[in-house]
Structures are given as structure tokens and as C-alpha cells.
Amino acid sequence: MRLYQNSLTAAKERGQLVFLEGLKSCFDVLFGEEQHVGQTNPLQFVSENGSNLKTMYEFVRTSLIASGSDSWKCPVLLVDDLSILLSLGVRPVDVLDFIHYCRVAVCSQLKGNIVVLVHSSDDSEDEENELVVNSLCHQSNLILWAEGLATGFCKDVHGQLKIIQKGSSELKAERNLLQIYQYKIQDKNVTFFARGMSAAVL
Amino acid sequence: LLGPTYGTGSILENTTLEVLDFNLLPSSLNLEDKYGIYSNLLFKYFLAEGIVCGHNLFVASAKEDPADILKELPAPLSDDALKNQVDEKETAIKSKQESQESMKIAWRYQNLPRIEVSPAASARFGHYYDVSKVVSPELLQSTKWHRFFLPEEMSLHPEIKTCNMTCGYTRLLQSIQRIIYQEGFDGSYPQKKQKNILRIGIQSLGSVLWGDDICCAHNPEDIYSLTKFLYVLRGLLRMSLSACIITMPAHLIQNKAIMERVTNLSDTVVGLESFIGSERETNPLYKDYQGLIHVHKIPQLNSLICDVSGTKDLAFRLKRKLFTIEVRETVFFHYLEPESVLFFCILIC
Questions:
Q1: How far is A93 from chain B (nearest CA, A)?
Q2: Is the ipTM, as predicted for this complex, more than 0.90?
Q3: What domain of life (chain B) (predicted)?
């Protein structure tokens, strides 16, 4: 991560990266001074006890448009992490609506991509979260599923990554492509390898 | 020492269930045992460590006056007593570390920690405490601490602006934010001579005493209060030099979805299962212990998923002076001596 830290800062300065820090925005909403008229905080819904992500969507849209005049190609919207919105009182339907609107703006209009992070587990009892996750999986072209090993903790293999690529055409009923890798996280890097091929084993 | 985000780099090598360095883990959740006995003990360990290290404390409770909590903190162990306790185990531990055993506690015995009473204390990692004694008033007096006692706050400031959270939580957040700002833990006063750390301890969050009904209803009136609180608290911790421990009566929270969300919002989650009143109290397999420790979550740097401890079978015992956490051997090998280690506190928040 450290390797990328400097490049992200530089990207931000160049205007290539727009970063909305949720924790900080939330803090500003609750403890900051009164907002000026016309300036709405993307996390305004937290103080209003609402479930309305419209201001957050507007933030995304205006950020993309502002940079759209330059030669931005294929913008990427990264959302980390969508499950948190449910903890803040947003209803699942509103979360999905937000993503839908973003898809229209980012994918259809600007030919970009959206990457969303959610938390889930096989034995989860959080129905609202599972609803959001299932719906997102259904809509997505590519699913990256990181999890610990089923056999438990291992020093040399920190986890497993499943990559599910949806078939491009439902009409042709192409099968989804599934790949499984294992990985080990190092200080500045992550190494991926096929199952059972960790460096420690070979 | 401590940065507002991870990445301060003080990772302990070759460890998995490390002595959870509070530097890395701003928010930690301690799921209370049924009667809150042992979770309170670990809560006090966390605060006691703050005193010995010269940190500032912020103690919040809805049921017990923070001054009373502080008076009952365990006393640091004196050097001689410490040496006696630790000597017999020292050789065993050393050899285990050398052979890179599955014992993953980063407790370095090369330099036996000396308990420093002065505030300009150690950058060292952890101390020992005598549970049978309370901390001396002199040591307490030299500590700068802040209090939040909910009944007191309600009477002092009856009217406050809420942010759609349970009233008690709103007040607590405002109080923490005020202290962080006034005392400069968020870097507000760069001219301040020496940076210090704020250790926040919140007792029994989620209980009815805080005005929340998640502990007494399957479908609580406001299921978002607690998670909103934790989210905002997380923001406060990220933006300041602070660490927080929270105890929570999870066994009373019937809505499991809430507990999952709470876990996601915390850096570290540890559950305590006491044997009091259960069949394990008299079960010979558990005769040496008072309860089990379940590590639900510890963070892993540079990873989106959390780490889970490699050791699944941890038990604790409280014997005379010391509270210890041990790797419990399985039944198959129960005739072997369990490896025991001394923990000062994990529940960082």
C-alpha cells in the first residue's frame, strides 16, 4: 500500500483522483460548522436520519463532470465500503438505487467502471446486507471474492481470491469463468499463486 | 508512536495473535462475559496500562462512576514479584520462541520490563499487574483523566441537539470530540510541547443504561443508533492520537445482524466466555481455567479482509495475582503442560 500512497497523493493533486473520505465528511456533518447554502455534504443523510443518498450521487456526478472536460477516459468509481451505508441507516433499496444511478452516469454515459466493496459471509444473518450483496453480484460483470482459507489460518497463505467472470452473453448462455488464486500479503506487495503453489510449499 | 491511520510500522514480526499493539488498532471491542466480571478486568487492564505509560484517559460509563472505576484499577507489579512469577516460565518461553513454535505471543523476555511510575515512561511494550492490589492514589493523581458519567451528564446538560442517535450516545460523542479538540489530540495545537495519547474506555455500550433497547428487544426501535455511534467514533479515533476499548454485553443483543455490523466497524473484536454458571465450571477438561477467549477479529495491514487468529483455543485464568491467557491444549494432549503467557491487554480499540 505504501508503494501506492505517493502515487495516489500525486494523482489527487493532478485532479486525477477525487477522494471522498466518509469518516471525515461524517464528522463535518455532525461537528462542523453550519453548512453554507448550496454546499451540501455528501453524507448529509447521517444527521437527517434519512436514507436519501441523492446528495452523495450528486457529488459523484459533479466530480466526474468537472473532470470530464479534460481528456479523462473511462473513469472508475471506487466505493469502499457499501455495507457501511446500511449501518448508517440507509435502506437496502436506497443503496441499490444509488448504485443504479451511478451505473447510468459512470458506465453508460461516461463508459467507465464501478468497483464496489461489500462485506459478506456464508453464515451471515444480516439479511439487508445479503440482499444488497446478492443484487450487486447479479448486476456485476466481475466478482472478486477474497476470503480466508477454509482450513484456517496459515502463515504463508493469507487467503484465497475467487474471480468470477460473467459470461458475456446471456442469450448464448456462456458459462461464468471461475478462477481461484491464493495470496500472501507482504509489506509492499501481494503475491498471487495457484492453489497449493505457495512459495513455502515449493 | 501512534498515527491517525495504520502504517506506523510497529508490526511485531513472526506473530499472529500478537500482543495487540494498540498503536495499530485504534478501535477494539470486548464482548462481555455473562456477568461482566472478566471483561471489566480487561477493561481495567487497558486503563491501568495507560496510567503506567503516562497517557491521558477518558473513562465513560452509564452505570459506574468513572472515579470509582479508576480507584479499582490493578496495581503494577513490582520488579521482585514480577521476577518470581516470570522466572520459571522464562526459559520455556525463550526456547519456544527460538524454535518458532505456534506460540504467537510477542512477549520479549530478554529485557524484563521494569515498571516505571514516572509519566515520562517507557516506549516498552506492556507491563504486569497485580490483580489483588489496587493502584496507588499517588499514581492516579499523576494521571490526567477525563470523565463521562451518563446520569451526571443528563442532569448537568438536559437539552442537547441530537443527531438521531440515542441521546446517551450523542452526548458521549460530543464529550469525546470536545476533549480531543480541547486537549489537542487531533493536532489542533501544534505548539504543544509533547504529544500524548488519549485512551478511551467505554463500559457496557449497548446496554439499556445508555438508553438503547437493542439488548432487550429483537426488533429494537432504532437499530442504527449503535452502529452510527461506532462509525462516528471511528472517525474521531482516526483523526486523533487515541485508542479506545469498548465492552459490550453481546450475549444480550438478540439481533445478530447488529453484531455483524458492529464487528465490521471495529478493528479488533474479542469475546470472553466465562464458565460461571455453566457446565464447564465443573468439567475436568476446563478445571484450570475460568473461561475462554474467542478472537473474532484482528486487523491485518494492507488487507481488506480481517485476520483471524491462528490460535482458536485460548482460555484465561485468574489466579491470586495474575490474569493469564493461555493456549489450551486439546483433550488429546491434555497431559502436556499448557504454554502460558502473560498478556497485559489486547482489547485495544
A1: 16
A2: no
A3: Eukaryota
